[in-house]
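Predict the 3D structure for this chain.
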Amino acid sequence: MRQFVLIGHEVPTEPDFSLDDLAGGAGRLDALCRSITASFVTSHGIRTDVRTHLVVQDELTITFDGSDLRRLNPDERSTAALVRNALEHRDEAIGALPAEPNPGVELYRRGFEATLEALANDGTVVQLHEDGDTAADAGGLENPVFVLSDHRDFTDEEEAVLEDVVDRRLRLGPELLHADQAITVAHHYLDTDGYERF
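Done. Predicted structure below.
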C-alpha cells in the first residue's frame, strides 16, 4: 500500500465553490486535484494499492481509496467534483465514523494531526522535503505514507506534528517539484525498486 497525505491550507470547507475557478475561489484546489489524480491514474487505469488523504483546513480529511474509487478521470474538474461532493456530505460524518459520499471516497471530521496519528502505524511516514536525505540512498520503504504540503510551506504547527510522527525525510531530486510531480516521481521510485528494476 502507498499513501499520500496532502494539506489543503485554503480549500473551502463549504461546497459552494465553482468548478470553473479552482485556482482562485477554491484555494488552489486545481493543484491539489492534479496531485490526487497523479497519485492514482496510470496510462490505462487506476492504481488500486493507493490511498490519498486530502486534509482540508485542518478540519476535515477526504480519503480516496484506489481499490474502490470510481469516476476519477485525468482532469482537474472531475476530481474537484468528487471533492465538492464529499464536502456536501460532511454533516454525515459523526465522531470517528466517516461520510461515504461515493465509492472509494470517505470524509472524516479530523485534521492533520489526527489523520497522521491514524496512519502512523500503516507504514513508513515520509515527509517529502527539499532538505531531506536523497531518495536514492533511502533503501526500501515499507508501505510508505508520503506527506506533502500544497503551494504553501508547512506551518510551524504542522512541522511540530511531523517531528513526532515522521520516520524519514526525503528529497526526490536536485530540483524543487510541484506536489503532483513529486507524487509521480515517488511512484516511479517505488515502481522501480529505487531505480534498480525497469
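The chain has a mean pLDDT of 93.
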